[in-house]
Amino acid sequence: MKKILFLRPAIYLDLIPGMDLISSFDLNGLQLNDPLLDTNTEKTIKRVKNLKKNFKIKYILSSPVSRCVQTAKLFDLPIKILPELKEIKFSVANFVTPENKDFNVNLLRENVVKSIVEDKNEEKVNDVIARIDSFFKKLKKIPNGSVCISHAFVMKFFEILFLNDMKIENANIFIKNYDWKIKPYDFLEGFCVSLDKNGRVLNVEKV
Which residues of 114-153 are buried (b: 16+ CB within 10 A; e: fewer)? Predict the structure, then answer.
């Protein structure tokens, strides 16, 4: 049996200096800006230390974006960059404007994910599924004790599919099997998937 962790990056700020929050969300979602981490917080340092101890982490796989690579470096272990772990490209422009200061972030999250699944956003859902499937084909070569540093939306897509024995029936599974009004993960949180020697899913648990 082997265990693989999926973790969201350490704490970072969505707000771009000199810009409002909605415009910042949009540039970050479109991957035109890459927020930097606040790496020196006591909470971050303690969390990394506990993860390394509790899960005997040996190897890091990271999305290519800076906040994930920075997070990976906190573990002081060998790192490999995997494009399959990159966040889904999305825009919030159709759902909220900078003038709307009273927007509901949980409803915004739900609407963005629905737009991704319905192919009404920036990245085609079939391209997202193809990326996830490409990762699944590499699973047998990923060693026990690995950590994948990725992003909340695509990580939750991964988790949903692991819970479905890695079967991708259609994109509706991503909205049927999770209430997106609930925040998927906090910083440096995620899930752990346990696999048998043949790569079958044995268990998925919150981390």
Answer: ebbbeeebebebeebbebbeebbeebeebeebbbbbbbbb
Over its length of 207 residues, how does the chain's per-residue pLDDT go in tens digits? 899 999 999 988 888 888 888 888 888 888 888 888 876 688 898 999 999 989 889 999 999 999 999 999 999 999 999 999 999 999 888 887 666 666 788 888 999 999 999 999 889 999 999 999 999 999 889 999 999 999 999 999 999 999 999 998 889 999 999 999 999 999 999 999 999 988 899 999 999
String of DSSP letters for 105-164: HHHHHHHHHHHHHTT-SSS-HHHHHHHHHHHHHTGGGSPTTEEEE--HHHHHHHHHHHHT
Q: Residue ranges of the domains in the chain?
A: 2-199
Q: What is the pTM of this model?
A: 0.92
Domain 2-199 has CATH 2.60.40: no
